[in-house]
Amino acid sequence: MSESATSSPAPTSAAGSAAVTGKQPNKIVVRFKSIGNAPILKKSVYKISSTQRFQALIMFLRKELGYKVSEPLFVYVNSAFSPAPDETVYNLVRCFGLDSQLTINYATTPAWG
After folding, report:
1. CATH number of 25-107
2. Interaxial angle between packed helices 14-21 and 89-96, expressed in degrees from 0 to 180 and rounded to the nearest 10
3. 36 in the Ramachandran plot: left (φ > 0), alpha (ψ -120 to 50) or beta?
4. Is the pTM of this model over 0.85?
5. What's the rounded Cα separation, in Å, for the pair 86 and 55?
6. What is the pLDDT along the chain (113 residues), one digit of tens a residue?
7. What region, left, alpha or beta, does residue 111 occupy, with left being phi > 0 and alpha being psi -120 to 50 degrees?
8. Disulfide check for 62: which of 2, 35, 67, 78 has CB 3.0–4.6 Å away?
């Protein structure tokens, strides 16, 4: 027995529609929020390819902030944890995203475990 297409609500976001169709969205909305004395970005919302690794997101953030690799930068998802650099952005938003967006907090000193 199959479910009727009218029994489920229509998806309202790219990630929501991807869950229904089984396809991965092309772009993910990422919100950057500074913590403590970290500089605030002029633009805090970006779209990034869903196939990118978390490491690419960190490198992008460093470039936007003008930080060198030798300068400390701590990056967290949802004010809670720092994922592995090889984790895909799609997996992070699928598991930890809110409203189909990924919130990235960044600091110059360790903030959370």
Report:
1. 3.10.20.90
2. 90
3. left
4. no
5. 6
6. 333 333 333 333 444 444 444 566 789 999 999 998 899 999 999 999 999 999 999 999 999 999 999 999 999 998 889 999 999 999 999 999 988 899 999 999 888 65
7. alpha
8. 67
Per-residue tokens: 74: 């701590």
Between CA 24 and CA 109 the distance in angstroms is: 34
- Other beta carbons within 10 Å of 68: 8
| Number of other residues whose CB lies within 10 A of the CB of residue 50 | 21
The DSSP code sequence of 47-101 is EEETT-BHHHHHHHHHHHHT--TTS--EEEETTTB---TTSBHHHHHHHH-BTTE
